[in-house]
Design a protein that fits this description.
This protein is mainly α. The chain contains 11 helices and no strands. It holds the Pfam family TetR_HI_0893_C.
C-alpha cells in the first residue's frame, strides 16, 4: 500500500481546480488531472475512489475554507448587524482572493453532483456557527423569525453576484459597493 503525500494531494486538488475552471466538468478527466499535477493516473486513486469522490472532497475542502473565513472575527457579544457586516466582508475578501475557488463553487453548485453526493449535511455542520449567530439574532428580536438558511441567502448571494460581475469585468467590487449590499441585505433580514 502506498502512503499518501500531502504535497501530491494538494497538487491534485490544484490541478483539478485549474482544469475545471479552464475546460469544465465534463472535459476534465483523471488522466488530464494527473498530467497537470505531474503524477501518474494511478496515484490519484491512492487518494480518491473516483472522479466524483475527488470532486466531492474538493468541494467540501473549499467550502470549509470559505466557512472558516466567513466567521473570522465574529464575536458572541457584538451586535448582530455588525457581525453580519463582518461575515459579508469576509466573504467578499475570500471570493476576491480565491477566484479559482469561486469559479469552482459556481460550477459545482449548479451541477447535479451536489445532490447526488449528498453533501448538504456536511455543509450544515460547516456553517453551523453562522446559523447559530442568526439564531441569536432571532432570539434577540433583531432578525426576522425565518429559517436561518433563508436569512443567510440574503447575505450570501448578493456578495457572490457582485463577485461574479467583478470577475466578468463588469465593475469593481470595492468597499462602497459592498457597503451598499450590506445595507440592503440588513434591511431584508432585520426584524
Amino acid at each position: 500500500m502506498r502512503h499518501k503525500d500531502e504535497n501530491k494531494s494538494e497538487a491534485i486538488f490544484q490541478a483539478t481546480l485549474e482544469l475545471l475552471n479552464e475546460i469544465g466538468f465534463s472535459d476534465t478527466s483523471m488522466s488530464k488531472i494527473a498530467k497537470r499535477a505531474r503524477v501518474s493516473p494511478s496515484t490519484i486513486y491512492v487518494y480518491f475512489a473516483n472522479k466524483e469522490d475527488m470532486l466531492g472532497k474538493l468541494y467540501i475542502r473549499v467550502k470549509e475554507k470559505m466557512s472558516l473565513n466567513m466567521v473570522h472575527g465574529l464575536e458572541e457579544g457584538q451586535p448582530v448587524q455588525q457581525g453580519m457586516a463582518v461575515m459579508m466582508r469576509n466573504l467578499r475578501d475570500f471570493l476576491l482572493e480565491n477566484r479559482d475557488y469561486f469559479l469552482f463553487l459556481e460550477q459545482f453548485s449548479n451541477s447535479p453532483l451536489l445532490t447526488k453526493l449528498c453533501l448538504e449535511e456536511s455543509m450544515a455542520m460547516m456553517f453551523k456557527p453562522l446559523h447559530d449567530y442568526i439564531g441569536r439574532g432571532k432570539q434577540q428580536g433583531v432578525l426576522k423569525k425565518l429559517d436561518a438558511s433563508l436569512l443567510l441567502t440574503y447575505c450570501y448571494f448578493p456578495v457572490t453576484a457582485l463577485a461574479k460581475e467583478h470577475f466578468k469585468g463588469n465593475g469593481e467590487f470595492n468597499d462602497d459597493r459592498l457597503s451598499e449590499i450590506i445595507k440592503l441585505s440588513w434591511d431584508a433580514i432585520k426584524a
